[in-house]
Amino acid sequence: MAIFKYFTEEAHALALIKKGLLMMQTLSHFRGREADGVRGDPRDGILTYAPQNGLVMNMQDGRIIRLDGGSFNSTVNQNDIFVYCTSNQLSAKLAASFGKFCVEIPNPELLVSRLKQRAHPTSQLDYDQVVYGKVDYRDHRKEPKADWALPERLVLIKPDDFAWQDEFRIAVGKRGTMAFENVGLNIQTGPTEPLLKQVPIPIFLKVGKLTEMTILHRF
Question: Which of 70, 78, 150, 195 might form a disulfide with 55, Cβ 3.0–4.6 angstroms?
């Protein structure tokens, strides 16, 4: 299954093809962008459960409380996970939103394999824990089940408003970031926006020339 990376500049597309240059942004970068329904998502990396009939809480003393408009939220460490965003579609609509130069990668497993080869005991990033796959677009009314405790799942979950992007993500975190239950939990009683810390700069990783495993499309 091929994936597609869109660029506004041809030079950036060629840098991927000829050098294997990946610019990876933190989740906080996307949270910090304007919520335009395209690149900006203030809830990226946050799994929200907000049942239509209110959030039901079972208290330790036996009481049952229903919070109308309440939500349960689980969030990853937004500054410690870097993502590379692509799509599963070659599309003029996506090109209009993300850039008219598109690099097709017929076998994303090979790209992920190249990234994992960067693993080293002294690496700050945990390349052995690279997460990748199709993004799961969810309605906030869907029960989170065990996903709330798994950072590698939260990275690949977005609100269903973004389903038109048909995104495929590759993500790598700092060591320990993807550990089980390494998430922040809260219950909200009304609509609020996540608080942002200072956003780290992107990282640039080279995985080697990809000339033989890519195709350049121009719209």
Answer: 70
Instruction: Determine the residue type at 213.
Output: M
Q: How far apart are CA 214 and CA 14, in angstroms?
A: 10
Identify the H or E element spanning 153.
helix 151-154
Compute, in degrees rounded to 10, the torsion defined by CA atoms 90, 91, 97, 99: 50
Report the relative pairing of strands 21-26 and 203-206 from DSSP bridges.
antiparallel
Query: pTM of the entire structure?
Result: 0.88
Q: Could you give the number of structural domains in the chain? A: 1
The CA R_g of the chain, rounded to the nearest whole Å, is 19
For residue 56, what are the CA distances in angstroms to 46, 51, 73, 143, 176? 20, 9, 14, 12, 32
Q: Contact at 8 Å (CB) between 56 and 65?
A: yes
pLDDT at 189: 81
Cα–Cα distance between 195 and 42 in angstroms, integer?
Answer: 9
pLDDT tens digits for range 2-40: 999 999 999 999 999 999 999 999 988 887 665 565 676
Which domain covers residue 150, as residue numbers? Answer: 3-218
In contact, 120 and 128? CB cutoff 8 Å: no
- Grade residue 197 by pLDDT with cuts at 50, 70 and 90: low
